[in-house]
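Protocol step 4 of 5: obtain the predicted structure for the target chain.
Materials: sequence only (see below). No template structures provided, no constraints applied. The aim of this step is simply to have a reference model before the mutagenesis design in step 5. Sequence pasted as it appears in the construct record:
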Amino acid sequence: MRPTSLLLGLLLVSAGFAQREKYTGPTPPKPDIPYLMHADNLIEIEVAQATEEKRKNDTVYRVAGASSPVRTPLAEPVFLLQSEKITPDSLELYRMDVKGGNREAVFSDRGRRGGPRAYRLVYTRLADKLYRLEVSENLGLENGQYSLTPRESNAVFCFEVY
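Step 4 output (structure tokens):
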């Protein structure tokens, strides 16, 4: 085999690997809202605005209602996001506690331990401005109330794992 034929063959094979497969799954109908993926169905998660309240050394973020109307049985939920203003790397996932008929997360202003921690999210670009977000926890999420929120924003996208 000639070296030029071998080189041409290698270039063709590497070009084939470089081409990305085109995403053919469902796409979110609205931008900047994460959608839960259940097989090929997309479920719009609850969109809300958290109220912020300062207490002694804590900041409390509260969402009205004891539970989200959007529920999933998946301990490792997958989301699709059509990004226009919200970037996938700005989203953080927190568990919320139910108190007094509301969902809340309490963050210490002193940096004490024991406050809510952000769960790891992994995102993959599927197409131009279309991203898949996956929860990356070893044992998945426990049953409870959760919210995705862009950093430095009181906008929240809530759901329940049951």
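Step 4 remarks: The helical segments are 3-18. The chain has one domain: 22-161.
Proceed to step 5.
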